[in-house]
Design a protein that fits this description.
The protein is of the alpha/beta class. It is built from 16 helices and 12 strands. The strands form 3 sheets. A 7-stranded mixed beta sheet has the order 1-9-8-5-4-2-3, sandwiched between helices. It has a 3-stranded antiparallel beta sheet with strand order 10-11-12. The protein has a two-stranded antiparallel ribbon with strand order 6-7. The longest helix has 26 residues. Bound molecules: pyridoxal-5'-phosphate.
Length: about 450
């Protein structure tokens, strides 16, 4: 355990001003939620917006709405390397996970594989049985009545392009692959708020899109989720579902206020070592957990988001500067750290670097942990290797997703990095990943 200055891997500041406006939000109640709601619609130029308690809830509710609209479809196609919250929501919605591997150069879908996945069930799409069954209104009939495992229930309900770290997924390209109008694009912009692709804001590409406002996302209200859509049919169902959600109770509201205060104090590198060293806080842990609360966003959270547009822009500017600095550092080290060319000048939440040499990666992570520099692995495994899901995917492999888990590390890009941190990190990277590193460095051994 490290005691002393420790840089968090990602950080979105919450200050006293925000907490005060959060409290003011409680007083203003629904009016504060309405304000945030209309600012979001206005900023993203989207017709419908829903505010809930987390990105997971936003995604699960979206899936539940789609499930009601398309009862003869049950598969959700997600990247094989993504946040564990994503499969958690699919399971929560009672739907089936289907995985697509990634491209190593973009972290986007492997579009060739995706195209196959999307067209495979289509051969069976016109089967009589599927049609007859749904017309008889017997959708709840158990699945085993179907003679063919590739029957209509195996049809894709949704595809989930994901902007990991804010690196844009090419949703327009995905759209050209979808020939079946019953397949909905649900854009996972949980890590993409504030970024754009081809001049258009992330979060406006999907048929439905969602943001997360959790800790460690581009913009945070401690926790929170936003759903955006232009589709009236989807919005109508979502409106009913979100309308039925409970509000935060007194204690759960108090907990969010307490967490906001803790974030204000402990996000600072001077103190971050403290919460990081408390195992029950599970900071930075990635959990598969389908039993999460689904609530309406509280006015406190809406209040915390006061001035969000200006604050997000400032945060993104800093992130952009850091990203370009890390690119220059890696270029100069001429060594083993590979970055994603699409990263240049983007306000990435964390800066992903691929280190193929296992020993170098491990020593980089170890040395960073010793110095409190915030270099971190991403998700511990690909989705198919999550213990709770492993049996479902025992036949399949996703080699790129697996190598993402084994090879990626991220560098911090946030504004709490001082010039000294940046120099120390640059030094560390050049030493650990430079082509001539072996002879130069001797890393301290961990006990
Ligand atoms: C964080 C995250 C989510 C879930 O958001 P929460 O607000 O933490 O529930 C979904 N997808 C991705 C890619 C994420 O990073």
């Amino acid at each position: 355990m490290r005691v002393g200055r420790t840089v968090p891997p990602a950080a979105t500041p919450i200050g006293l001003t925000e907490i005060i406006s959060g409290i003011r939000g409680i007083v203003r109640g629904q009016r504060e939620l309405d304000r945030f709601h209309s600012e979001l619609k206005d900023h993203f130029g989207i017709k419908h917006c829903f505010l809930v308690s987390s990105g997971k809830a936003a995604f699960a509710l979206t899936l539940l709405a789609l499930k009601e609209m398309f009862p003869d479809r049950e598969e959700v196609l997600i990247p094989a390397f993504t946040c564990y919250s994503v499969p958690s929501s699919v399971v929560r919605a009672g739907l089936r996970i289907r995985l697509c591997d990634l491209r190593l150069d973009s972290l986007d879908f492997d579009f060739a594989q995706l195209s196959t996945l999307l067209s495979r069930p289509s051969a069976r799409r016109e089967t009589e049985s599927g049609r007859a069954r749904s017309m008889n209104g017997m959708m709840s009939e158990p699945r085993r009545i179907s003679e063919d495992p590739g029957d209509s229930l195996n049809r894709a309900l949704a595809v989930v392009p994901t902007h990991l770290f804010g690196l844009p997924s090419d949703v327009p390209r995905l759209r050209t692959l979808i020939k079946d109008s019953g397949v909905t694009i649900v854009e996972d912009a949980a890590q993409g708020m504030g970024e754009a692709f081809q001049g258009r804001k992330l979060g406006t590409f999907g048929d439905v899109s969602f943001f997360s406002l959790a800790r460690g996302k581009p913009f945070s209200t401690v926790e929170g989720g936003v759903i955006l859509t232009d589709r009236d049919d989807i919005a109508e169902v979502l409106n009913r579902f979100v309308g039925l959600l409970p509000h935060y109770g007194f204690l759960s509201q108090l907990k969010v206020i307490f967490k906001a205060a803790a974030m204000m104090v402990f996000i600072h590198p001077r103190l971050f070592w403290l919460p990081k060293s408390l195992p029950f806080l599970k900071l930075g842990e990635t959990l598969f957990e389908p039993h999460f609360a689904m609530l309406k966003m509280s006015p406190f959270q809406a209040g915390l988001a006061a001035n969000w547009r200006r604050r997000l822009e400032t945060l993104q500017d800093i992130r952009r500067t850091r990203v370009d600095h890390w690119i220059a550092t890696l270029d100069a080290s001429g060594g083993q750290g590979l970055y994603f060319s699409g990263a240049r000048s983007r306000g990435l939440l964390r800066f992903p670097v691929r280190v193929r040499d296992r020993r170098k990666r491990e020593s980089l992570l170890r040395e960073s942990a010793r110095m409190g520099m915030g270099i971190m692995p991403v998700y511990p495994t690909s989705i198919d290797a999550i213990p709770e899901l492993r049996l479902e995917f025992s036949e399949e492999t996703y080699p790129v997703a697996a190598s993402c888990a084994d090879e990626l590390v991220t560098l911090p890009t946030h504004g709490y990095l001082t010039e000294d941190d940046v120099s120390a990190l640059s030094e560390l990277i050049s030493q650990a990943l430079g082509s001539t590193s072996e002879s130069k460095v001797s890393f301290a051994q961990q006990p």
